[in-house]
Amino acid sequence: MKILVINGPNLNMLGKRPKEHYGSMTLDEINSLMLKEAKEDQQLTFYQSNYEGDIVTKIQEALTSYDAIIINPAAYTHTSVAIHDALEMFLGPIVEVHLSHVDDREDFRKVNFIRSVATMTFSGKKEESYIDALKYLEEKLGNK
Description:
The protein is α/β, with parallel strands linked by helices. The chain is 34% helix and 18% strand. The protein has one domain: Dehydroquinase, class II (Rossmann fold), CATH 3.40.50.9100. The model has no long low-confidence stretch (mean pLDDT 92).
């Protein structure tokens, strides 16, 4: 099963961001952890961008070449109708991931444009949210 893992703005700065929300791992360390925890049938491709349009383009490119998407849209969760609309076209499972409990944070984070197109959401468990996403996809898709 081919899985595209998309990370949004400022996630390239993990390790420097407030640890109480984001943990202490860098994005490269999270990616390495995911590779270590992935099942043999899970082929992971990692992508990070600070630019909304680049994320939209990557999702569009994934429409016919990936079985699932794991996405941490970061701040775009709360602002991007464009990412929502691109994800809406994807026919496979979409797993929304957040390191922090976004629903329990600032009021502006209560708006979520991604959740309505996500098959499942994992949040608030730092890097374990990503591992939960992998486990969910293994259960959902099996040996695709």
